[in-house]
Write a structure and sequence with these properties.
This protein has 12 helices and 10 strands. The chain is α/β, with parallel strands linked by helices. The two termini are about 20 Å apart. About 45% of the residues are buried.
């Protein structure tokens, strides 16, 4: 595999690289790279054949979009690049102010039609383009009816302002309902889900992966290295200098659990057999998982991107995949338990019967 081993994203004609370059680390911020480093990362990704760039309007208040737009314009390769950005988070107030009654503009966030049009127009200005290839709902707001979301995004596809759309960080039932509504009404539907997914975050397999398969959506994992935990640079006895795994970030110290340390040991064992870094093995596992269309990677240093790209040429053996799967198997919830082989044998007279896509 390489960045030019292209595949379609979900049941669509959008052709993407197996690794998408995330730009949350571009520009100012605690985890950011300066403009020169960000440009070097962008250029290296493109030089390796990558075509899938992912950003969001909330990253540094839109500054990431501005940088990405500048890099794409300078590359003169807009038609070659699959450009994705996101909407939903409210940028009109600080996180603290947004918790206070009456603070901020409620229509400057969420998935209502008013905000989607506002957010897209602002993103297009910052990106310096007249269309986005893939427009993500960054997170479900919990109140906007999915019928409105499908209608609004479908209208934008028909208007040519976006080519496709996808859903990020939402309940599986919501994505399945969106796909069903779109199919029944013969209107554009979602082609992908963006979800946290890694060896230490496999809970989405029970519902989301099944919904994605049934609804024709490709799965695009974010944080496949669990915020750096699966890089192997931490140990049970030393969690100092944890960087993104401590302080103001979505993970805090939540990855430091006994189960996750056991998973990391399995990753390190396979990495030792292959003489490769643990991070590359963890990323190779994600790339090999059924249903994964493209995997989102980020980098604040050029060396990190180079390591991510190098993971695409790892071929894990059947035995190595089995060991990693076994070490990281999530607890079986109700939905997952219904697919157990012994239950199917009870249903089908003792026979092992495989379903579509399995």
């Amino acid at each position: 595999m390489s960045l030019t081993d292209f595949r379609t994203l979900g049941r669509s004609g959008l052709v993407v690289s197996p690794l998408a370059l995330g730009t949350m680390t571009f520009g100012p911020g605690e985890w950011g790279a300066d403009e020169a480093t960000s440009r070097a990362i962008f250029d290296a990704y493109r030089a390796a054949g990558g075509n899938f760039i992912d950003t969001a309007d909330i990253y540094s208040g839109g500054e990431r979009e501005t940088l990405v737009g500048r890099f794409i314009a300078d590359s003169r390769a807009r038609d070659e690049i699959v450009l994705a950005t996101k909407f939903a988070f409210n940028g009109s107030a600080s996180p603290l102010a947004a918790t206070q009654a009456g603070a901020g503009n409620p229509n400057a966030g969420g998935a209502g039609a008013k905000n989607i049009h506002r957010a897209l127009d602002a993103s297009l200005r910052r990106l310096g383009t007249d269309y986005v290839d893939l427009y993500w709902m960054h997170i479900w707001d919990g109140v906007t009816p999915i019928e409105e979301i499908v209608q609004t995004l479908g209208d934008l596809v028909r208007a040519g302002k976006i080519r496709y759309y996808g859903l990020s960080d939402m309940p599986a039932w919501l994505a399945m309902k969106a796909a069903t509504i779109a199919s029944e009404r013969r209107v554009p539907g979602p082609i992908a889900m963006q979800l946290e997914y890694s060896l230490v975050a496999r809970d989405v397999e029970s519902e989301h992966f099944a919904a994605a398969r049934e609804g024709g959506m490709g799965v695009m994992p974010w944080s496949p290295l669990a915020g750096g935990f699966l890089s192997g640079k931490y140990s049970r006895s030393n969690t100092a200098d944890t960087g993104r795994l401590s302080g103001a970030n979505p993970f805090g110290d939540s990855k430091f659990t006994g189960r996750n340390w056991d998973i990391l040991e399995a990753v390190k064992a396979v990495a030792g057999e292959l003489d490769r870094p643990a991070a590359q093995v963890a990323l190779a596992w994600t790339l090999a998982r059924p249903g994964v269309a493209a995997t989102l990677v980020g980098a604040s240093k050029l060396s990190q991107l180079e390591s991510n790209i190098a993971a695409t040429d790892i071929r894990l053996s059947v035995e190595q995949m089995r060991r990693l799967d076994a070490a990281s198997m999530p607890p079986q919830g109700f939905s997952a338990s219904l697919a157990q082989p012994f239950i199917r044998r009870m249903i089908f007279g003792g026979h092992d019967v495989a379903g579509w896509g399995e």
